[in-house]
Amino acid sequence: MVWKTVLRHVVTRPPAPVQADAALARALRQRVGASKLGRSLAIRHVPAGSCNGCELELRATQNLVYDLTQYGLSFTPSPRHADILLITGVAGRNMVAAVREARAAMPEPALVVAVGDCAVDGGVFKGAAAVAGGAEAILPVDLIIAGCPPSPAQIVQGLLALVEAHDTRL
Amino acid sequence: MMKQLSPQDWRAHPGKFIALWTDSSHAYALYQPGELVAVALENGAYPALPHAGAGWFQRLAHDLNTHTAEGAADTRPAIQHFRAEDGTAPWPDLTAAPGEGVHQVAVGPVHAGIIEPGHFRFSVLGEQVLKLEARLGYAHKGTLGLIRGKSPRLAARFAARISGDATVAHSLAFAHAAEAALGVEVPPRAVHLRAIMAELERLANHASDIGAMAGDAGFAFLDARFAWQRECLCVAAHTAFGHRLMMDMVIPGGIAGDLAGEGGAAILAALAALEAELPSLKRVFEDYASLQDRVIGTGIVPVSLAERFAAGGYVGRASGQEGDARLSPGYGPYPDLGLDVPLERDGDVAARIRVRLAEIPESIRLIRELLRLLPEGALAVAPPGESGMGLGVAESFRGAVWHWLRIESGMIADVFIADPSTLHWPLLEHAATTAILADFPLINKSINGSYSGVDL
After folding, report:
1. How far apart, in whole angstroms, are the C-alpha atoms of residue B401 and residue A92?
2. Which of residues 66-125 of A touch B (CB under 8 A)?
3. Does B193 share its domain with B60?
4. Average pLDDT over residues B205-214
5. How far apart are CA B81 and CA B91, in angstroms?
């Protein structure tokens, strides 16, 4: 009964799109400068030592409710096509080299985003012998999106600030 | 509850092997349905076990505690990836399958999709996969070390982050272990609400994964609809328990917060939506030949192999293994409610999907029943500062998770955590060789081992 489902979605409108935080967008603009990146950004996700909670919510940003692509943001399988390196999880000892290689494979200019408390500063795993800290322990980070895990709406809102940072009207 | 064995009896012990670990004085082995045996360590060594599933555990015990399994065939590192002086991580020698024209394909640790890190090395001849070697350990965080020296209540947040998709089940097994060690009786309301959370988690994962498998086979419509259902369940969980994944809600002694006033209605509405749409989604699965062609006969785990590894969850049930920890060894409130566990024997991706589809209505029934019978009363009791050893189990969506704790004066002296994925990864290595390389993402998703859950 595909048509029934389609019909239901014609009459029930999806929730209003998420808005970027203007102050955050301005701050980001100052940090990353007026880069040549447009408003369509490709994201390469690299888990550096997560519990897979953040991955669940990252995947959810692509579902019918949050629909990340409507904002011009999309996930790409290759770092060669990516504008954003999105890191989840702690800086795990065994992933440091892989994260650096993924960043090195990206064209410039590129942005680095840390998603989830673990990527922000190590989260609950802070201080473990196998953990160097958050994503900042591997690479300079441009934007953090905190939460354990952050909700899909929070992730979308944070990423939108990166898009809006390129809007010269701000 | 624990039986101390001689080295000979340790090696010859019969039963379905679940897990192995060591502490400073002993090596422990766990068999279904919760039989714990131990052997004393001699000069930091113990006799290797002949069970198929023991390999990863013995490698892990070596890397974590430097204890050697004497006579073990597989001595590859588990989580201690070799690192050179300059901080780089050179590759180990991953050998190809023998034969002319065989070449290797390397995938990971950074994968194409939004999934956890791991490295897969395929040996292929044309398109046919001849051998798969999985190199795990990338998600190692030293969780067990963080749990030691803390009280059960404080350490619960680490148990909740062993594998985020099974956070409720791991928290529940951890709480069961602490409660068994300290002799805590959990209030009935907490027992009911725990089970509601555990079944919600099962539903959310089944919905999300079934959709993702259909998506991998090119059916974006099914992926979109199942992801929508998963989202509705997460929103209901947030309304009911204040967290989309219900993380940190199950604690030793009970639960951390009550069901919100409108929570019951929110959960029932999400269940009704899922129940209403499920038949039409299932029909798409059954009616489209191009979808059936991708999943039938793909990624086969034979019944004999599943039995040797004592596979659990949908991986085991799709290959003729009946075990379900909710019934055997069993824990509250399931024995009172009854439980229908689906069973298939084909062992392919299609069978695993059928098992998961069949588990959805059962979980819906359980949640409705639990909400209807929800008793009033306290939510938690404080665990006493006493000593003891305890085993805890909970059936996660992917099978039984086991937690073992030794508590001394209210502080955790030692801990081990066994996720069912440990026994499922070798099955993936086999299943991949029954298909072509292009089918691997589908097979991997159908088994869906946790990386974080085995890397600890």
Report:
1. 24
2. 75, 77-79, 89-90, 92-98, 101-102, 124-125
3. no
4. 95
5. 9
Q: pLDDT tens digit string along B168-190?
A: 999 999 999 999 999 999 999 99
In a domain, B108, yes or no: no
Confidence class for position A140, pLDDT limits 50, 70, 90 = very high
pLDDT per position as a tens digit, B380-424: 999 998 999 999 999 999 999 999 999 999 999 999 999 999 999
Residues B152, B295 share a domain: yes
φ, ψ dihedrals at A65, nearest 5°: -80, -50
Q: Are residues B214 and B338 in the same domain?
A: yes
Instruction: Give the residue among A96, A84, A155, A104 at the shortest CA–CA distance from A130.
Output: A96
Q: How distant is the Cα of B204 from the closest Cα of chain A, in angstroms?
A: 10
* Residue B314 belongs to domain spanning: 143-420
Give the Cα separation of B376 and A54 in Å (integer): 34
The answer to whether residue A30 scores a pLDDT higher than 90 is no
Name the token pair of B448. 């869906």
Question: Quick one: which of B423, B445, B395 has its CA closest to B170?
Answer: B395
Mutation target to probe the B interface, by most B beta carbons within 10 A, among A8, A9, A52 is A52
Give the pLDDT band (50/70/90) at residue B440. Answer: very high
Q: Which of residues 90-119 of B touch A (CB under 8 A)?
A: 109-110, 112-117
Number of domains in chain B: 2
For A30, residues 6+ apart whose C-beta sits below 8 A from its C-beta are none
Domain membership of residue B28 (yes or no) is yes
Nearest to B116 among A52, A60, A77 (CB): A52
Domain A40-164 has CATH 1.10.940.10: no
Nearest-by-Cβ selection for A56 from B88, B89, B165: B165
Distance of CA B67 to the CA centre of its chain: 25
Mean pLDDT of chain A: 86
Alpha helices, DSSP H, located in chain A: 2-11, 22-32, 53-60, 96-104, 117-121, 152-164
User: Are B387 and B266 part of one and the same domain?
Assistant: yes
